[in-house]
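fold-stage: in
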Amino acid sequence: MEPYFILALFQHGYKVRTSTLYHLLKGKRTSSVLLYGFLYENLRFFQLFPLLSEKQFNTILDELVKQELLCLMSDSRVQITAKGKQIVLEEGNHFSWIDHYRFGKTDEIIWRFLQFTVQVVSNLSYNHKNYIPLEQSPLYQKQIKLFLRSTTKAQLIGTVKKEWMQLFSQLTKDEANYFAQQFSGYQLIGKTSFQLMDNQADPFEQFLSKKEKLHHLLDIICQMPEDSFLKKLILPLVRQNENKSMSETWSYLEAQLSLEALAQQRRVKVSTIKDHLMELALTKNFPFEQFISKKTNQFLLEYPKPYQDWVYYSIKQIMPELDYFEFRLYQIQKLREERDFRQ
């Protein structure tokens, strides 16, 4: 693993515990780990390295401290140094499109599905049936057959061609070529991603570059109109990246139930509902006002920023009745507002 990639995960500049970052990269799905990812803008790297060992991770950190790129505090937290920030700036590429939290579990499956769709439609456009399909699995074949039954042949061919042309126009030339050259179709066999990668780049750089391109493509597809063929094709697979139980809780929110009523409806503990809601608050269009009391809102409104430096137990000494769940939701809400304004 590239040490400077790990270094870039500290570019936010705050003093943090490294163990939580390790759990984030490994994919430990707890509210504290996900909240850490959100607070320090590293949530998109969730479960990016599921096989990363703690020993390997700590060896990289020790080396970064030794090079004075990270500073180790007396309480075991670390912070990036001025020298470290300069290195991050010089290194440049921080892979801004990678979003493993949103796409990571199914990104490769989705890409194979998209490739298979192009192959089927390409051969269909030439009335060619005698070819070896890229995918034999019912997972892919069943879905394609459903779409074939739901529309006319001419409409499907025209729609797929039109939508891919729209997609390519929104990608860089390098990205568009990278995907187009992987397509197989009538009398055409596509190249593998490995064949198209920069031979000068090391395997780690190639891995990140592949993720970067693919997640950019998926993000664009997800922003297409709801009735788009490609969006309808991949959305069920994109949603598999979400916590299934959390998604069920999300479906109850419109009813504006209390935490206790939500827990009763879902037949789970109130603490589980709170975990679900905190994760939903990180990315969804969340009704914060439904769960944050006016008293909490007024009190925290006066508390000095930055929000990332807030420590619940320290603030609770000033306001003993401060609820942890409300405190975290307020913190998430304000950071989301800040970031939306920044964009």
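fold-stage: in (second)
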Amino acid sequence: MEVIELREESDLDLEAGTCLLDLETTGLRREEDRIFLVGLLVAKEGEGSDLIQVYDPSGGRDDRLQEGLLGRTRDLLRGRRILTYNGQAFDLPFLEAGLKRVGLPPLNTASSLDLYAWLRSRRRFLDEVPGRLADLEKRSGFLRTDRLSGRAVARSAPMMAHPEVADLVLGHNRDDLVGTWHVKKLLDRMAGTLRMDLEDSLLGPCRLDLVRLEKTANRARVHFLLTPPQEMKGFKNSSFGDLAWEGDHLAMDLALTGGYVDDDPVRLAVSPIPFPDRSPYAFRPPLLAVYDKKRDYGQNLLRLAASLLKK
């Protein structure tokens, strides 16, 4: 019995040097349970990708096959940016535990991207967005063909040597990979609403990507990813708000004032440029809603940062 590797071409595109990863395991305890199937969607040079599935037909019960499965996985992932859904909490720690168990060096996952973690950190900037992968798949327009639950997949591990069982589990894993690709495209579109390109700013042409909002009673600190990174750190202070930047990070500190709409508290900032308020409250300029009990208003925060970065 040997580790089995399947490969098929796919027209699903990924950024060069990246891959999607999805694991099937015998349970949820990474120190005790085993990985028995690894699914990858790997970017090809040029267009398209390869959908690769490597599995252990013993279902994790043969130590030699486990070493072969994990070693092959490590080879396929080496030097790539790994994309997952909930991989920070599950796939990557599970994989690292498996590599350690069989005596293989760890992977460098510093540049990996967990789509669930990205969504969770930005949920309040977005319209109502589900957190479950299956619900996001539906919103993205992807319809699964498999009907196996995660529990059924785990219970199938000891029967992976049977072709009919392996086909069902491989189909489940394939749908996980393709569904995650569709979710990534959905989240890419959402990310576009949290981004602003500036042509004429103190920093020259640049892009701001909204990352997170930290709040206290009367102040807010907003964090942005800044592209291109700045070689020199700097700052700008004003009565409307303060900016500080270093490398690829820009922070904006705002003094807030309070307001109420139908007895619900809303925190407001004042803009130096009279932008229209992009919240449902439509406050008159120069007031902009920053957040309320349900939402953080990312479009307003981007416009505030753009106005403070004006030359």
